[in-house]
Structure prediction request, 147 residues.
Amino acid sequence: MPAIPMSPIHLDDLDRIEWQPGSAYRGQDMVYQGQEVFFRKVLCDRRKEGGGFAVLTKVCPPPGKVVKTVAVARSEEHIFRLRGGRVNKSGKATQSHGNAYTLNPTGHPHSSMIASETISLVIYSGETDDVKSIEFADLEPAVGEVA
Prediction:
């Protein structure tokens, strides 16, 4: 079967693309007590042509909460964190915020915990992750801190 030719895509003004709420593409798992937590801007979806999927994602955790997502990569997943980033259970950064890269190879189980607004450019070589769970947990005091 011959490959379907793909034409170039140019997006000159990303602000003109609206943030799509998570509930619109994944249902109520993306909402916490009526508040949208997950958003995305689809930049390119070439999966039907045998290509990948590029998206800007934004996670906006409720105050005092950490959002834990567990997933398995269904294709190579390249994540470029542009703002915010991963944290531990007490909300302390576990990587450079706004300046990090992650590669989840196909079949790789992975998770993240997010406690502040985080924006990432995510590029999949094919299908998006198989999300196993999303949890909203209270931030825990760090060792030596009083709650």
